[in-house]
Write a structure and sequence with these properties.
- The complex is a heterotetramer, with two copies of chain A and two copies of chain B.
- By secondary structure, chain A is α/β, with parallel strands linked by helices.
- Chain A folds into two domains: about 110 residues, Aspartate Aminotransferase, domain 1 (Alpha-Beta Complex); about 260 residues, Type I PLP-dependent aspartate aminotransferase-like (Major domain) (Aspartate Aminotransferase, domain 2, 3-Layer(aba) Sandwich).
- Chain A is built from twelve helices and 14 strands.
- In chain A, helix 6 packs across helix 7.
- The termini of chain A are far apart.
- By secondary structure, chain B is of the alpha/beta class.
- Chain B is about 35% helix and about 10% strand.
- Chain B is built from 16 helices and twelve strands.
- A seven-stranded mixed sheet of chain B has the order 1-7-6-5-4-2-3, with helices on both faces.
- The chains are: A alpha/beta, B alpha/beta.
- At the A-B interface, helix 1, helix 2, helix 3, helix 4 and helix 5 of A face helix 1, helix 2, helix 3, helix 4 and helix 5 of B.
C-alpha cells in the first residue's frame, strides 16, 4: 500500500528492536478479552483509478451548481471562487499543518489567521474576531452562551423567528441540557423582527437578531440595538451572508455587542453545507469571555514581530470544565480561505460585488412580481427574498428541474404560515439571461 | 524574505478579483441601511499570490517532514482525497437540494456511516459533529437525552486524569459535573476506584482509550460492567483509534458512545486548525438520540429524515463538515481491511521509538505502548534543560516537536506519536536527533536552551502577547 | 484588470519620474511611421467566469479519454496520472521559475533535472541523458544531426520505415535545407526492419530503428546494432513508449549509441499531443556532441554539494552558429514530471505496470483474432499491435463512436499498403470489461 | 532541511503508485526481448511528496518574488490559465482523434491563430513550434523554402549584434551563414550598413525588435525596404513583443516572418526551462510554406489538412505544445484590447527603473527604453565589484537577479526587465536594493563579492562542473 512504507525487512528489524516476535505480539497490552473477535467486512481496497471512477459516479448524481441553475440560499451561497484561492489553499504547508502550537515554525498559519481576525473585525465593525467557530449555527449558540458569561445570573435569551431556522435548532440543542430558556420573537408584517415585547421578558441575557434575516430582509439594527440595550440585554447580531456588509451597514456600527454568523460565502465551496466557517467577533471589553482560539501579535527574543496563539487561559486544556467553550479544532483553513477571498476582493471589489448581488436579486424580484408572484414583506432585501407564488407553481417548480433549474426554496416545511411562499437567492453567478429564462418559464 | 501584513500592501483601486459583468441596472439600497463598506486593502492578483506563497513557506506541515505531535495522529494526507472532495458535483452542492437531486452525497454519507460502524464495531453513526470536541458535546447531549428519557437525574461524569483536555469542558457544556478519576501506578484506571465513585447521580464515565499515556485501558471491560451495573453509560474519546483498528471492537468492550476524529485516524488534513470531523458512533440502544436529519434508504433511494422524536436535534447547521467526510471516505475505500495494518504499524513505530530512546530519556511507564509513547525531561532537568528546550531544539534538526507538557499526569511530558506513514529511515533520523539533543543537554545545555536558531523566528514572547493582547491590526 | 496593478496615481507619479506626460509619450522612440495605424479588433476581455464557461464549452466538444474509450497510441499514450504528480507539478516554485541560470536559488529545478537525467539514463541503459528535447520527432532529428558530428564528413542516414511516420516527417523537415540525405529502410514480413541493405549505403552516418516500432513490434536491437556498427554507422535507437523498458531490454544494453524518443507516457497528459518530452541519451564519450541542456553536480564555496547547468560551451549563447543545436527553452517541467512519475512507479512498479500493459494488449489481440481479425506481423509486441480487420469493419469503427469508443487507428493514410489495417493500443487504463465489450461489439 | 537524492531514499518493495488491478492473465514476454527493468528506487507516497515539496522550497519563481530577468519577460502567470489547460476534455485528448471528435481543440487553435495575427498585424500563423528557437528554425525553414520555390540560391543572413543568441544557431541549422551586423552608436541598426551587406546571396535579415538593448529599431522600415528591394526577407525575433503590442503592426514595418514566445509575452509559465511555445506569424505571401497539418474551416466545422504542397512539412510530431497554447489563449481572452495597456505599463516600469538607477549605475544608452533597460558595472568596477557580484548580492535582498553579461555588445551588461505585472512598491524596493548594493560596492565591496549568503548554497563551482562533468548519479 502506497501510504504504508514498511517493507518486510523493516518490520522484521523493528520488531527485533522492540523485542516482539510478530505484529500481533505488539498488542500484548490489550487483554485477550478485549480483542476483536469478529472479522472485518470492509470492502477490498480500491485502486486510485477505481476510486476516481467511483467518486465520479457519485458526484455525477448531484444537481450541482456547476451544471444547474440553483436559486437557493438560506445559509449557503453560490459565489464564484477565484482559481487563485483554490490554488493557494492547495499548498500543503497550509493544509497539512496542525493547530499552530509551535509558533516558530507556524508563522504562515498564524499571520494568516491574524489577518483573518483583522479583516473580519473590520467587516463586522467590531474590535476583535476569533480564529473561527464551526459554522453559523454553533457560532450563534456560543454567542448566546457567552452572553450569560457577560451578564451573569440571567437565564433567558430571545431569538427572532426570522433568524435562520437551522441556527435556531442548533441553539435549541445546545440549550436543552443547560436549563436556560430561549424565547422566540415574532415577525412583523414587513418581514422584520418584532422587538416590542422584549421589555417584558424577565432575566433576559441576550437578544439575537439576524440581518439580512432568513427572509432576506434587512433589520433596522440600530433601533434593535437601542431596544435591546434598554432591556439590559446583550445585543447579538447574526448573519448568514457576510457579503451583504459590502453595501449594508456593519452590525458593529449599529451597536451590536457580539456579531456572529456563517462565512462560507467567502471563498468556501458550498460542499453540501460543510465545512463552513463560524465568524465570531465582539468588543474589546468582552474578549476574555469569548470562546475559541485567538492569534495575537508579539515579538521574538530578538524583538522581531511575530504571532502566537494567545489568551489560552480561556481554553479547555488549562481551564478544563471552566473553559469559555469546548471548541478545540476549529475551521482554520476555512478562515484562511475567507481571508484570501477578502484580500482578493479588496475594499473596492466587495462593494461592487455586493451591489451586483443586490441588483441581480432586485431584477429577478421585479420580473417575478410582473409574472404574477406577490411580495409578502415590505422590508428591503439584499440577495434573497420571499415571494408568494401563484397557484399551481408547485408543478412548475417540479417541471423546472427538467431544465436543471431549482427555482427557490419552498418555505412551508420551515414556516407553515408561509405555505406557497418561496425563498429565492440570486448571486453574481446568474446572468441576466439566466434570470430572464427563469422569468419566462414561470410566466408560461 | 519577509512579508508585510495584507493591509501594508496594495493601493486603493487595485483588484485581484474578476468582477462579473454588470448586466442589470444599478439600484441604490435604502439609505437607512446603506453602509460605506469595510476597510479592506485593494491588491492585485500577483500581490495576493506572493503574499500567501510566502506565508506558506513559513509553515511546517506533514508534507514538509516528520510531525510526531502526540495525540494528533499527524499521518500523511493522501493527495487523491483532495481530488475527490473538489469534484464539482460535490463542491457545488447546495445543502438543501431536494433529496432526489442529491442522491450522490446521500449514498456517500450512508456508506461512510456503515464503514465507520464496521471499523469501530458500533451500531449506528452520525456524521454531523464538526470536530472531536463537537463529537464529545454530541455524545454528552446523547447521555443527557438518554437519562431524561429514562426520567433519571444524573449530574456527574467520571473523567480519568489521562483523558483529553476537552472532555471536562464538553461535560460542563451539558451541565454535567466532571469528577476526576486518578489512574493507578500502571498509568491506567482502576476498577475499584470507579466502583467507589459510581453512584446513582453519576451518568457514567468518559474515557480515552488508548489513553493519553499511549496505554490501553486494560480494565476497560470490567469498568464498563461496573458503570453499566450502576445504570451509567460509557463514553469513549476515540481520538486514539489509530492504535486499535481491527484489534478492538469498541462495543464489545462496553463502549456506548464513541467519537472519531477523522482528521486524525482517517487522514484528512488538519488545515492548521481545522476543519476536522468528529462523527459519533453509538449502540443500537442510543441510536434514537442521534442528531437529525439522518439518511434513510427506501426502495433504493436515499432521503433525509427528521422523523426521530427522541433525537437531540441539530448540532450543525447542515450536515457536518461534508468535504472532510469525503476525504475520510476516500481514505477508507483506499485502505479497506488494510486499516488493521495501519494500527499495527502505528504501534510498531511508537514502540520502536520508545525502545531506542528509553536509555537517554526518562520513560515513566516502561511497558509496551500503543501508538504513542510518553517520555519526560527528568534526566535533562539535571542540566537545567527542559521539555520546552528539547522541543525547540528539534526544530533545528528539521523535525516538528512532539506534544509537550501533556498529559498533565506526567511532569514535563514529551508525547511522541510517529504514525504508520513514517519510514524506518525517518524514525532513525529522529532518534538520532533526540539522542544528539540528550548529549547536547549534558555538554552544551545553553545551545539547547537558546534553540531554535534555524526557523524564521526565535522563541516568541507569549507572556507579553497574553498580557497586552494585540488581536487585530 | 487584476493582472495590472497600476493605479492612476501610480501611473502619474511614475510618468513624472521618467519625465513623460503620457503613456503614449513613452513610445517616442518608435518613429511615427512605425506606429500602428489600424485599430484592434480584439474581442472584449472575458471575466474569469465567462472564460471558464467558454473553455468548458470547448472542452466538452472533445472525445477525451475521460469519458471515451480510446484505443489509440501511435506516439501518444493514455496512462493513469497519480494525483500526487499533478499536485507537485502545480507548485508554482517549479512552474513559474525560468531556466536555472542562477543556481543558488534554483536548486529545486536543478536537483530535479539531475535526477531526471539519472533515471532516464538508467531506464535507457545509457551513460548520460540531457535535460530534454521538444518531443520524440525533434529528438530523432537532433540525434541524426548529432551523428554527423560524431562521424564527420558523412552525409547520409538511414531510417526504418517502421519508425513513427510523424517522427520521420519531422526529420525530413529538419534535413531539407541541410543537403543531407535520408534513406528509408523497408519493413520485413514480420513487422521489423530490414537492415540487410545498409552495408551498401555509401557515406552512412547513422541508422535509426525504433523499438517497439510504430507497428508495436519489438525489433531485435542487438542484431541491429551489430549490423549498424559493421556498416560503420552510429546506432540511433528511438522509441515512443518508454514504459516498454519496464520489461523490454533497454536500447543501451543492446549497443545503441544514441537513444531518443518521446517521454509523454511518464506522467504527462496527452493534451492533444503536446507538450511532450523529448528524451535523449548517449554514451559518455559523445557527451560534448550532444544537443540540449545538461545539469551537473558540483560543490559550492563551502564544499556543499549542489547542481548547475554545465557544458554550456556547447550552447548557442557561447558558440552561436557553431552550437550543437539551437535548442534553448526545452521541456523542463515535462522532464520534472517524468522524473516524478518514475520515482512514483519505482523499479518494482514500472515492471508490473509494463507487464500489465503487455498482458492487456495481448488479451485484446487474442480476442480480436478470435473475432475475425488477422495478424499481418509475427514479431512480439508490447502494448500496441496491428491487425487486419474483417471486411466491413470501417462501418463498425464509425458505429462504435456512438458508444464512445475509438477502435484503433486506421493505417491506410500513413501506410497505403496497410489499407484495412488498424493499429490498436491498450494500456492499464482499460479494464477487462472494457476489452470484452469491444470484442463483443466487433463480433456482432 | 536538506534532501537526499531520490535513489538515496526508499527501500525495494515500496511503491507510491497505485497499481491497477490485474484482471487478465500474465503472459511472459519472449525471452529474447525480455529485460530486467531499470534500477529505479522504490519510494512510498509520502517520500515522493516530501522530496519534491522540499526541492520546490529551494526554487525562486515569479510567485516568490520580483524576477526582472531581462529578455525573459517574467510576468505573473495567472492561475486561471492552469485551470483551463487541465480540463479533462483537453488534457485527455489524443492528437490523432478523427476531426469530428476534436472540434473543441480545432476551434481553439483556429481562434488563437486569428488572435495572434490580430495582435501582431501579420496574416497567417502556425502554432506548431515548441519554443522560441524552434520558431526561429521554422522561420528559417520558411525562408529556405521560399527561395527554393523561387529558384534562388541565397546562403547568407544578416544578424545584428543586438539579436538574441539563438538566432545564429537557427540560421546554421538551415544551412545559412550568419553575417554579423554592427549596431551604431545609438544602439540600433544603420540602414547604410544593411545596404552595404545586402546582396543577391543574402536571404535577408534576422532582427530582434525591440532589440536586446531594450531599444526600438527606429530604422526598421527603411531597412526592410532595402532588404525587400534586394529580394530578401525580414525575420523578426518577437521575443520582445511585450513592449509593442498595439503600438506596432509588424507587417506594416516590413516584417515577413515573426515568431512569438508565448511563455514570455502571453504569460504561460516557463516551468524552469519549458515547455514554451513559439508560434510563427507570416505574410500572405509566405503562408503556403507554413508547417502542416493546418486547421481549416468548412461549413462550420474544422478539420486538419495536410494539403499544402509548398509547406515545409512538420516541425513537431503532433500540433505543438498544445497545453501551452491553451494558457496563452486563455490569457488573450482575459485581456482583449488591454494588451496595449500591458505594453504601455511594461515600458513605463522599465523607464522608471532606468531613471531611478542611472545616477548610480552606468547606462550605456541614455535614451527612452522599451520594456527593459541595460546597465553595466562600469562604475562598480572601480571597486572591483562586477556584474556577477551585483547579481548575486541581489539574492540576499530577496530578488531574482537580472540577465547578466548579455547582450554581448555591452561589457558587463545588467539587463533589467520588470514587466507590467509588478507594482510600483516592488519596483521601489528593488531600486532601493540596487542603490544599497551600489553603496556597498564602495563601502564594503567584499560583502558584495562574497554574496549570496542567504540562499541554500553559496556560489557554485561551475568550472569544476564543466571540467569533470558529473551528469548522472
Amino acid at each position: 500500500m502506497r501510504y504504508l512504507p514498511h517493507t518486510p525487512d523493516d518490520v522484521a528489524s523493528m520488531l527485533k528492536a522492540v523485542g516482539a516476535d510478530s505484529l500481533e505480539e505488539l498488542f500484548a497490552g490489550v487483554p485477550e478479552a478485549c480483542r476483536r473477535k469478529d472479522a472485518w467486512t470492509l470492502p477490498e481496497p480500491l485502486t486510485e483509478w477505481e476510486l476516481n471512477a467511483h467518486m465520479d459516479r457519485l458526484a455525477a448524481r448531484m444537481a450541482s451548481a456547476h451544471s444547474w441553475k440553483v436559486y437557493l440560499g438560506a445559509g449557503s451561497y453560490e459565489h464564484h471562487i477565484p482559481s487563485t484561492v483554490s490554488y493557494l489553499l492547495g499548498r500543503s504547508e497550509f493544509s497539512t499543518a496542525y493547530t499552530p502550537y509551535q509558533p516558530e515554525i507556524s508563522q504562515g498559519t498564524l499571520q494568516g489567521i491574524y489577518e483573518y481576525q483583522t479583516l473580519t473585525a473590520r467587516l463586522l465593525g467590531m474590535d476583535v474576531a476569533n480564529a473561527s467557530m464551526y459554522d453559523g449555527g454553533s457560532a450563534l449558540a456560543e454567542a448566546l452562551l457567552m452572553a450569560f458569561r457577560i451578564t451573569r445570573k440571567k437565564r433567558r435569551v430571545a431569538v427572532s423567528r426570522a433568524v435562520n431556522p437551522f441556527y435556531r435548532r442548533v441553539v435549541a440543542t445546545y440549550f436543552e441540557p443547560t436549563g436556560y430558556d430561549v424565547v422566540e420573537l415574532p415577525v412583523l408584517a414587513d418581514g422584520t423582527t418584532d422587538l416590542s415585547g422584549i421589555g417584558g421578558i424577565e432575566d433576559l441575557a441576550a437578544v439575537a437578531v439576524q440581518s439580512p434575516n432568513f427572509f432576506g430582509c434587512l433589520e433596522d439594527l440600530e433601533a434593535a440595538g437601542r431596544a435591546i440595550h434598554d432591556a439590559g440585554a446583550v445585543f447579538v447580531a447574526c448573519f448568514s451572508e457576510p457579503l451583504a456588509f459590502g453595501i449594508v451597514k456593519s452590525p458593529g456600527s449599529q451597536g451590536a455587542d457580539i456579531v456572529c454568523g456563517e462565512g462560507q460565502s467567502f471563498g468556501n465551496p458550498q460542499s453540501f453545507g460543510g465545512p463552513g466557517l463560524g465568524m465570531f467577533a465582539t468588543r474589546q471589553e468582552h474578549v476574555r469571555k469569548m470562546p475559541g482560539r485567538l492569534v495575537g501579535r508579539t515579538t521574538d527574543l530578538e524583538g522581531r514581530p511575530g504571532f502566537v496563539l494567545t489568551l489560552s487561559t480561556r481554553e479547555q486544556h488549562i481551564r478544563r470544565e471552566k473553559a469559555t467553550s469546548n471548541i478545540c479544532s476549529n475551521q482554520g483553513l476555512c478562515a484562511m480561505t475567507a481571508a484570501m477571498f477578502m484580500a482578493t476582493l479588496g475594499g473596492t471589489g466587495i462593494r461592487e460585488l455586493a451591489q451586483l448581488n443586490h441588483d441581480k436579486a432586485e431584477y429577478l424580484k421585479e420580473g417575478l412580481l410582473a409574472a404574477g408572484f406577490s411580495a409578502p414583506f415590505a422590508a428591503p432585501t439584499f440577495n434573497e427574498f420571499v415571494l408568494k407564488a401563484p397557484a399551481g407553481f408547485a408543478d412548475t417548480w417540479k417541471r423546472l428541474q427538467q431544465q436543471k433549474i431549482v427555482a427557490g426554496l419552498p418555505l412551508a416545511r420551515l414556516y407553515p404560515e408561509l405555505d406557497g411562499h418561496y425563498l429565492f437567492c440570486v448571486t453574481e453567478t446568474k446572468t441576466r439571461d439566466d434570470l430572464d429564462a427563469l422569468i419566462r418559464e414561470v410566466s408560461s | 524574505l519577509n512579508e508585510p501584513l495584507l493591509w501594508e500592501r496594495g493601493k486603493p483601486g487595485r483588484s485581484a478579483y474578476s468582477l462579473p459583468r454588470r448586466d442589470v441596472e444599478r439600484k441604490a439600497l435604502d439609505e437607512r441601511y446603506a453602509g460605506s463598506g469595510p476597510d479592506f486593502p485593494d491588491l492585485s492578483e500577483v500581490e495576493v499570490i506572493r503574499h500567501y506563497t510566502r506565508l506558506s513557506q513559513w509553515n511546517f506541515g506533514v508534507d514538509t517532514g516528520f510531525y510526531p505531535l502526540g495525540s494528533c495522529t499527524m499521518k500523511y494526507n493522501p493527495k487523491t482525497n483532495e481530488r475527490q472532495a473538489s469534484l464539482p458535483g460535490f463542491a457545488g452542492a447546495h445543502p438543501l437540494l431536494p433529496d432526489e437531486l442529491c442522491q450522490g452525497v446521500l449514498e456517500l454519507m450512508a456508506h461512510l456511516q456503515e464503514l465507520l460502524a464496521e471499523v469501530t464495531g458500533m451500531d449506528a453513526v452520525s456524521l454531523q459533529p464538526a470536530a472531536g470536541a463537537h463529537g464529545e458535546l454530541t455524545g454528552m447531549l446523547i447521555f443527557a437525552a438518554h437519562f431524561r428519557n429514562k426520567g433519571e437525574n444524573r449530574t456527574k461524569i467520571l473523567i480519568p486524569d489521562t483523558a483529553h483536555g476537552t472532555n471536562p469542558a464538553s461535560c460542563a457544556l451539558c451541565g454535567f459535573q466532571a469528577v476526576p478519576l486518578k489512574s493507578n501506578d500502571r498509568g491506567v484506571m482502576d476498577p475499584e476506584a470507579v466502583a467507589a465513585l459510581m453512584d446513582e447521580e453519576t451518568a457514567g464515565i468518559m474515557v480515552t482509550n488508548p489513553n493519553t499515556l499511549g496505554l490501553f485501558e486494560e480494565n476497560i471491560k470490567e469498568i464498563a460492567e461496573i458503570v453499566h451495573r450502576n445504570g451509567g453509560l460509557v463514553y469513549c474519546d476515540g481520538a486514539n483509534m489509530n492504535a486499535v483498528m481491527g484489534i478492538v471492537n469498541m462495543k464489545d468492550i462496553g463502549v456506548d458512545v464513541l467519537h472519531l476524529n477523522l482528521h486524525k485516524t482517517f487522514s484528512t488534513p488538519h488545515g492548521g486548525g481545522g476543519p476536522g470531523a468528529g462523527p459519533v458512533c453509538v449502540t443500537k440502544e442510543l441510536e434514537p438520540f442521534l442528531p437529525v436529519p439522518r439518511v434513510v434508504r427506501e426502495d433504493g433511494t436515499y432521503r433525509l429524515s427528521d422523523d426521530f422524536p427522541l433525537s437531540i436535534g441539530k448540532v450543525h447547521t447542515f450536515h457536518g463538515n461534508f468535504g472532510v467526510l469525503i476525504k475520510a471516505y476516500s481514505y477508507i475505500l483506499s485502505m479497506g481491511p488494510e486499516l488493521k495494518k495501519v494500527s499495527q504499524l502505528a504501534v510498531l513505530n511508537a514502540n520502536y521509538i520508545k525502545e531506542r530512546l528509553k536509555d537517554v530519556y526518562h520513560l515513566p511507564f516502561d511497558r509496551p505502548c500503543m501508538h504513542e509513547c510518553v517520555f519526560t525531561d527528568k534526566k535533562q532537568q539535571a542540566h537545567k534543560v527542559t521539555t520546552l528546550d528539547i522541543a525547540k531544539r528539534l526544530m533545528d534538526y528539521g523535525f516538528h516537536p512532539p506534544t509537550i507538557y501533556f498529559p498533565l499526569v506526567v511532569q514535563g511530558a514529551l508525547m511522541i506519536e510517529p504514525t504508520e506513514t513514517e519510514t524506518k529511515e525517518d524514525l532513525d533520523r529522529f532518534i538520532e536527533a533526540m539522542r544528539a539533543i540528550a548529549r547536547e543537554a549534558e555538554e552544551d545545555p545553553e545551545r539547547v536552551r537558546q534553540a531554535p536558531s534555524k526557523p524564521k523566528l526565535r522563541r516568541l514572547n507569549e507572556a507579553e502577547a497574553a498580557r497586552r493582547p494585540c488581536l487585530a491590526g
